[in-house]
Design goal:
heterodimer, A: alpha/beta, Rossmann fold, six-stranded mixed beta sheet, 8 helices, globular, B: Serine Threonine Protein Phosphatase 5, Tetratricopeptide repeat
Amino acid sequence: MKKLLNDPADVVVEALAGMAAAHPDHLRVDLDHKLVLRAGSPVSGKVALVSGGGSGHEPLHGGFVGRGMLDAACAGEVFTSPVPDQILAATTAVDGGAGVLHIVKNYTGDVMNFEMAAELAADSGVQVEAVVTDDDVAVQDSLYTAGRRGVGVTVLLEKIVGAAAEEGQDLATCADLARRVNAQGRSMGIALTSCTVPAAGKPTFELADDEMEIGIGIHGEPGRSTEKLAPARDVAARLVEPVVSDLGLERGESVIAFVNGMGGTPLLELYVMYGEVARLLEDAGITVARSLVGNYITSLEMAGCSVTLLRVDEEMVRLWDAPVDTPGLRWGG
Amino acid sequence: MADLTAFQSWIAACSESITAHADDLTELDRAIGDADHGSNMRRGMTACAALAEQEDFSSIDAYLKKVGMTLVSTVGGASGPLYGTFFLRLAGPLAASEDVGAREFGQALRAGVEGIVARGKAEAGDKTMYDAFSPALDAFESTAGSGSELAEALRAAADAAAQGRDATEPMVARKGRASYLGERSAGHQDPGATSATLLIEAAAKTLS
């Protein structure tokens, strides 16, 4: 393992301290609870957005704390859900009196810990709604699995719902919008390499030099199948087709197209992939209303990418375009 | 009959056993999960084992509740809420007890296992910790029901847990992260059933 670390056990807290030092205008951190909190929070009268999950997916979630996106992010250990105490502390810290929306990626541990925290928050009088993202088409959504995983759509949802909260929409409206975004988005990913959890010290799975893993998640968990590496145009088709088909996208519809790097793939390659994705969508008569390309929900140093398509209406595009000012995503006035 | 000191010895034995097997648990989790079960459980059980020195407990149930809360706040993942709920519920039926015999422990074990099911919604054969806990509970109840003492019932429970753990190897996971692998989860022993067996084996060595 070659990593820039001091003690692997301190990686999360030291990274949070570094974030606070780098972005004092956007955020502050609570190192005891491992929270990233929006500067100036709680914002009185605004619905607060709280998300969180295991560390190792940066910039998600802490990098999306700031105006127009999240109010707080809870950082778990690497690839491990945060615990209820942390989530409760974040929830009470940023509640501005208009309630708190929990944005939870669908993993067994995350869902259980956020549920326990929501029960505790309700006991202390904070109004909480929870939305679970589950957009990964690599997993069959059935009674016989833990359900589809929450991946790329989480980034788009945090931006769009963050804008709605910023313009003063209430908790029920924000929660409805969040569920609508989740329902209209799907993702699929591939890995070219595994990743190494600092505390484990060796790669989570094995992949030969000429192989790719199709249908990976964001935790170095193996995917659905291992195949021979193919040219970018073929890989793009392997990712776009199941997403388009699962969403039932038809000619004339509009999407936000998101090509996300897993952490170890250069932007040069991500743009090659985006070019292929855009061509496939054009051939299918699907309009790209907006696009996003870069490393936004990563899996440590894993090489690979995911494609997320979100079917959008005018309202979602308007909220997507609204100003956002966070370490990880920033545009508009 | 097991008193507060015996329960504290149980938790100390859990911590020792989990620490000794932490790398094995992580290795099992690497195959079908995300390679963190050993380190997460070691962190949680170490914190639990330290409780007896940090605080004076007035009763078995207060102690077990604190163990449960400590696991919830230190383990993370799904194992934190699941094992945390197990110990929190285990405490319930022991509220008035200073010395716990087979009958009371059986009630507590049932409450603990039912708590795991309520939190995790797992069924037998899903390839989870429940596949060790469920046969352990059955074996405990049938052994205690025929008049055996706590130690003997726990030995039967530990043997049944180990068999249940071994039986997870060919199963296809239907809960938790391993379920994403589908058929590829078969052929690997479940890490949760493995750690659950360690906790029950530790009980068999310390509670009598």
